[in-house]
Design brief:
With 102 residues, the chain is an all-alpha fold. The protein has five helices and no strands. α3 packs antiparallel against α4.
Amino acid sequence: MFTAVGLFHLGRSTQVAAIARRTGHSLRTYQLIGLVEAAGGPGLLLGLGVTPLGIAAGFGLTRFMTGAVIKHLRVGDGLKQWPASAILAALTTHCSLRVSAR
């Protein structure tokens, strides 16, 4: 999920540019956000075998998604934009805690 969304954000489509503008980011900054998201997916998968990597990726993505929720709320996005970030933040928190408890 993170990799697919990140790759979308790395693009230069008019939709990506519009989202970047709406959230107050430059297209370049938004693409860097996409890079972090795209790297998070493989980090979580590799973390299944390398526990410290999984914990770091999970907590990093949790903070990242929490920031996304805050940003969406600050710019006045409705229920269509921010719940996915909130759900992903909760899931990555849960997974990180489970991995760290091993």
